[in-house]
């Protein structure tokens, strides 16, 4: 064995304790760790011939690149939709690494952790109140979950039109409808050869909504009834967390044939709150659904799952079957994830989710969801009294969009620059129906009311600094 590797191997437990101790220190200081930091400027690209061992490498990382890490899993990182990590999820994720399984088969003999994955999907269906008519699997994020669902949609659409998209490529006749798709669904259309600019936009309900207008959907379904239609619907848009009317969409299925995909990356978890569950009513009739675990479930990156109706298993296998290698057997009877999703080798991604579900149960996750919604509502209420800021989109769930009336994107960037230099609260820029805004998304279990106080204080400081600059000018 290589001498450095041999030495590391001898001291493996102590190295793991070192990593644990670094982890505990980091998590202990997480609330005060900066949420934004300037980008590092130097990159070393010459690799030394001999290594320094794990202890040396850990020291080197802390000495050089530790400042690239921000408290994105902490309580005041409200940019994008960024979840944190619960103790159970960290423990499960660590063990996934330690076990290092290639999770494909449910049966073995070469390992059967996929059986745990199948079970975890069953638990998630139960958590979300979805029927067992779906089968699912883990992927890296909702981007890949959207990709998987839309890949099945593509195969379905090809079959409607008399071609096999997986084998022969895409031919004309596929129509994609959507009102406010997430950028990742658009990217999936690009990856699938359907074309990211080929979406036929659906009208939204009215000027202040991002949800599709079911009347317009019906008109388009009538208009395109001789094409193969794929509907990409939103179970929570990123700006106002608006939900397409799932009951209305489900109702149209009786009269029109179309493939229905739901992007519910984080909105799926509204199902856990009795007060918000009606937002998803009807979604169980969808053909496929995409959900993230690294957002509102507070499982570390990267973790998401797709759900596809079991009746589409052949379409799914036609799309994802990994060559015709004879050792695969009958892909549907001899189930392996290899033939059902985009990846071949796959991490035991279900484990942190399984451990989290067992650790906190339904009530734990319901608390996480309701707690986040309350924080969003509270932040929006507090902003109402904070000149010059104004909430500029409906707060349907757990995201708050706000702006400075009359400000352009540049002025808002100036606010964000000040906040980022201070490093205590992190927001991302966005635009709500054309108006530049700042977005705050609440999904982290650690966020408390005092964090809202800190954020309001930071916004006051930024506003003060801005008007100070203006006066000096
Ligand atoms: C975050 C998000 C995605 C993309 O998910 P990733 O986990 O970043 O791949 C898709 N749709 C919606 C609505 C999202 O919020």
From TrEMBL:
List, alphabetically, the InterPro entries matched.
Aromatic_deC, PyrdxlP-dep_de-COase, PyrdxlP-dep_Trfase, PyrdxlP-dep_Trfase_major, PyrdxlP-dep_Trfase_small
KW Lyase (keyword) present: yes
> Is Lyase set as a keyword in this record?
yes
**UniProt entry keywords in alphabetical sequence:** Decarboxylase, Lyase, Pyridoxal phosphate
Cofactor(s) essential for the protein: pyridoxal 5'-phosphate
User: Matching PANTHER family, A to Z?
Assistant: GROUP II PYRIDOXAL-5-PHOSPHATE DECARBOXYLASE, MIP05841P
Q: Which family does it belong to?
A: Belongs to the group II decarboxylase family.
Its protein name is Pyridoxal-dependent decarboxylase
């Amino acid at each position: 064995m290589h001498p450095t590797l041999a030495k590391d191997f001898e001291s493996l437990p102590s190295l793991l304790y070192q990593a644990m101790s670094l982890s505990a220190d980091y998590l202990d200081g997480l609330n005060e760790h900066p949420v934004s930091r300037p980008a590092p400027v130097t990159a070393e690209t010459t690799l030394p011939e001999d290594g320094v061992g794990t202890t040396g490498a850990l020291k080197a990382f802390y000495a050089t690149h530790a400042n690239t890490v921000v408290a994105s899993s902490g309580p005041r990182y409200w940019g994008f939709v960024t979840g944190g990590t619960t103790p159970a999820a960290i423990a499960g994720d660590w063990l996934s690494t330690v076990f290092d399984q290639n999770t494909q088969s449910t049966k073995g003999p070469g390992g059967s952790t996929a059986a745990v994955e199948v079970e975890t999907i069953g638990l998630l269906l139960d958590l979300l109140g979805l029927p067992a008519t779906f089968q699912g699997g883990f992927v890296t994020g909702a981007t890949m979950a959207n990709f998987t669902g839309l890949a099945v949609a593509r195969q379905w659409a090809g079959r409607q039109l008399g071609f096999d998209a997986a084998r022969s490529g895409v031919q004309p006749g596929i129509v994609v409808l959507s009102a406010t798709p997430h950028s990742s669904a658009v990217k999936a259309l690009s990856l699938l050869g359907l074309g990211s600019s080929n979406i036929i936009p659906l009208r939204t309900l009215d000027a202040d909504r991002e949800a599709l207008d079911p009347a317009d959907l019906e008109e388009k379904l009538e208009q395109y009834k001789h094409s193969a239609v794929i509907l990409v619907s939103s179970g929570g848009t990123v700006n106002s967390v608006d939900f397409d009317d799932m009951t209305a969409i489900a109702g149209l299925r009786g009269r029109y044939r179309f493939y229905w995909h739901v992007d519910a990356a984080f909105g799926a978890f509204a199902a856990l709150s009795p007060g918000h569950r009606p937002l998803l009513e009807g979604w169980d009739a969808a053909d496929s659904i995409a959900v993230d675990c690294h957002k509102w479930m507070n499982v570390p990156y990267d973790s998401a799952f797709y759900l596809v109706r079991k009746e589409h298993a052949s379409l799914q296998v036609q799309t994802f079957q990994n060559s015709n290698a004879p050792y695969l057997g009958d892909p549907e009877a001899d189930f392996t994830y290899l033939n059902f999703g985009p990846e071949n080798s796959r991490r035991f991604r279900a484990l942190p989710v399984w451990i989290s579900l067992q650790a906190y149960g339904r009530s734990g996750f319901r608390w996480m969801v309701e707690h986040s919604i309350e924080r969003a509502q509270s932040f929006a209420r507090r902003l109402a009294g904070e000149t010059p800021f104004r909430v500029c989109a409906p707060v349907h769930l757990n995201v708050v969009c706000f702006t400075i009336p009359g400000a352009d994107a540049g002025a808002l960037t100036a606010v964000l620059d000040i906040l980022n230099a201070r490093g205590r609260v992190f927001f991302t820029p966005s635009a709500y129906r054309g108006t530049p805004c700042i977005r705050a998304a609440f999904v982290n279990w650690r966020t408390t009311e005092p964090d809202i106080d800190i954020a309001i204080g930071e916004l006051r400081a930024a506003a003060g600094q801005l008007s100070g600059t203006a006066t000096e000018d």
